[in-house]
């Protein structure tokens, strides 16, 4: 059995390969060739313990996550966890890996895959709301998916923006990175906008004119009480893509506008169906939202690809 830490996982696959693995997961999802119960979630005093089991014809797997919103203020990651893979044929354990790293890598690749397939092809300016681990992962994958030359980061904490800027420039030294003094300033510049917060109330302004004409990736809201997008936003999108049908029951960014009839069900479609139809990227000036809540199938397929990549490159530590 292989132990895979963050360094091992980051070396096992490049971001293009991670996005390819995410698209493979979507193909399995559309074909229905998997078993994935709704994830059991325990909530206590604002903290969350989440179990995400899944199985395909090749692999069993489970990811265990803790989500502790108070951690960032204490200098710790909000998300911690472990993931385990098992051979489907024999039931033997194959790998244990850093669950936080897996979440970061696969979720960044989910956003990147949506941008790679559907965002305007010539988009060059990215805006990110939230400068945490996920903000960095999303930005790096977006820069892989499109020829991004400029990034505007909006976050309440200047030190977090500085840390994210430093890490972006370590990998992409020619990138221009700015700290936006407000979300409104970020919106003035960005063509693609990624929201990566766990906010209970919208982080974007309730002003349709400031929101119009951009490609949005909503990553942060994964519970019914969480919302990143204001009600007025939902009069704008031509189409709203969601990673899974489960998103309709899990995120306030879909539940609320549907309940209030601000968003029609006809505008909603799964990303997997768009992938299957090989839809072209949207034109510049379109308003489009891709909303992700995640699913265990992403973790399983990406985790298995990381495991194969680690074996091929001689990475990881064998546990006996």
Main attributes of the structure:
single chain; about 325 residues; alpha/beta; ornithine cyclodeaminase, domain 1; Rossmann fold; 2 domains; eight-stranded parallel beta sheet; seven-stranded mixed beta sheet; about 35% helix; globular
Give a concise summary.
The protein is of the alpha/beta class and 320 residues long.
Descriptive overview:
With 320 residues, the protein is an alpha/beta fold. It folds into two domains: 2-103 and 297-318, ornithine cyclodeaminase, domain 1, CATH 3.30.1780.10; 118-295, NAD(P)-binding Rossmann-like Domain (Rossmann fold, 3-Layer(aba) Sandwich), CATH 3.40.50. The protein is built from eleven helices and 15 strands. The longest helix is centred in the middle third of the chain and has 20 residues, at 99-118. The protein is globular and about 60 Å long. The chain starts with a strand and ends with a strand. The mean pLDDT is 95.
- Counting copies of identical and different chains, the oligomeric state is single chain
At the first level of CATH, the class of the largest domain is Alpha Beta
- Helix percent reads 25-40%
Q: Which spans of ≥5 residues are poorly predicted at pLDDT below 50?
A: none
Please tell me the total number of domains. 2
Q: Report the total helices.
A: 11
Cα end-to-end separation? 7 Å
**How much beta, percentage-wise?**
15-25%
- Shape summary: globular
CATH topology of the largest domain: Rossmann fold
Strand order of the largest sheet: 9-8-7-10-11-14-12-13
